[in-house]
Design a protein that fits this description.
Blueprint lengths: L4 E5 L3 E7 L2 E9 L3 H14 L5 E8 L7 E5 L9 H9 L6 E8 L6 H19 L2 E5 L1 E8 L4 H7 L6 E7 L3 E8 L3 H12 L4 E7 L2
Antiparallel strand pairs: 1-7, 2-3, 3-6, 4-5, 4-6, 8-10, 8-11, 9-10
């Protein structure tokens, strides 16, 4: 899995199922940081404050990454909700994701195995229908070229997914560019080829 590009939730997503009279509502959201994951969980807990349980799990980072994860059984028997939810998330192929499975108890006990299956199924059902987009780690470059190379440079940029943030005309032409980290070296090579090495390329900053 490319850690610089990977699927993330495109927005808030919700699914629901009834299992032996208990109502399970799974809410999923994009969670690029632990703080945002916890804020989302708090919002769902507030929305369903009258629920029997609001169990949750999150994975911040690329799909399958365990560096920044969290989970909670929220009163269900230990290991029957948060852990299976997290396991399903880690195998779900989506990064930067948080999910809350809200349960309204219907009067029938599911047993530990039944709970594990129910909470796992909630996450899997949400993942199956989850709209995703791509997280692309980007960086910014300062590029300076002679006027004779401006047209050639502009023709190159779309091939490397470059967005022009600013341009400045003086003795030379300066650009502030934003592009995927994975495209930087290829663009640098293309600009060197275009200008026969007469180009200045300097990194500015990058997102995390």
């Amino acid at each position: 899995m490319d850690e610089k590009r990977y699927p993330i939730p495109a927005g808030l997503h919700r699914v629901e199922q009834d299992i032996q009279k208990s109502r399970f509502i799974t809410t999923a959201a994009h969670a690029p940081t632990v703080e945002e994951a916890k804020a989302f969980i708090a919002r769902v807990r507030e929305e369903f404050a009258d629920a029997t349980h609001n169990c949750w799990a999150f994975v911040v980072g690329p799909p399958g990454s365990t560096a920044q994860v969290g989970m909670s059984d929220d009163g269900e028997p230990h290991g029957t909700a948060g852990r299976p939810m997290l396991t399903a998330l880690l195998h779900g192929g989506v990064g930067d994701v948080a999910m809350v499975v809200t349960r309204y108890f219907g009067g029938t006990l599911l047993g530990k195995g039944g709970l594990v299956r129910a909470y796992t199924a909630g996450v899997q059902q949400a993942l199956e229908s989850l709209p995703t987009t791509e997280r692309v780690r980007k960086t910014r470059l300062a590029v300076e070229v002679e006027y004779t190379h401006v047209d050639g440079l502009r023709r190159l940029l779309p091939s490397y997914e470059v967005q022009v943030l600013a341009e400045e005309y003086s003795a030379t032409v300066g650009y502030r560019l934003e592009l995927p980290v994975t495209q930087v070296e290829a663009l640098r090579t293309a600009l060197n080829d275009l200008t026969l090495g007469q180009v200045l390329v300097e990194p500015l900053d990058s997102d995390d």
